[in-house]
Amino acid sequence: MKTDATVWTMAGLRFLSAAIELSAAIVMLSFNDVKKALAVNTLLAVVGPTIFFVVMMIGLVAVANELSLFKLAWIGAGVVCILIGIYVVK
Q1: What does the alpha-carbon distance between residue 81 and residue 89 come to, in Å, rounded to a whole number?
Q2: How far separated are the first and last CA of the chain, in Å rounded?
Q3: 24 contacts 40 by C-beta, under 8 angstroms
C-alpha cells in the first residue's frame, strides 16, 4: 500500500519536531546550566505549537473538500482554543 504524500509531509514535520526536541535536550545537557536550559526551553515553546499548527493546516487542506463548512469551522475553533490555551491562559 502506498502512503499518501500529505501523510508523508505531516509525518516528516513531526520527525523534524522530534529531532529539534532531542537536539534541544542534548544542548541542555551539554550546557549543564539551568539558566541556559531555560533559554533553550523557551525556544521550544515556539517550535512545538508552530509545527502543530502547520501539520494541522496541511491535514485540513487535504480533507477540506470532504468536510462540510460546519465541520471545518468546528475544527478551526478547536485549533484556536488550543492556541489560546498555549499562549494566552496562564
Answers
A1: 10
A2: 45
A3: yes
pLDDT tens digit sequence for 2-34: 878 999 999 999 999 999 999 999 999 999 999
Amino acid in the structure at residue 41 = N
Residue-by-residue DSSP string for the chain = -PPPHHHHHHHHHHHHHHHHHHHHHHHHHHH--HHHHHHHHHHHHHHHHHHHHHHHHHHHHHHGGGS-HHHHHHHHHHHHHHHHHHHT--
For the CA atoms of 87, 79, 11, 22, the dihedral, rounded to the nearest 10 degrees, stands at 20
The model's pLDDT over 45-75, given as tens digits with 9 standing for 90+, comes to: 888 889 988 998 898 888 888 888 898 889 8
Query: Do 29 and 22 contact (CB within 8 A), yes or no?
Result: no
Question: What is this structure's pTM?
Answer: 0.74
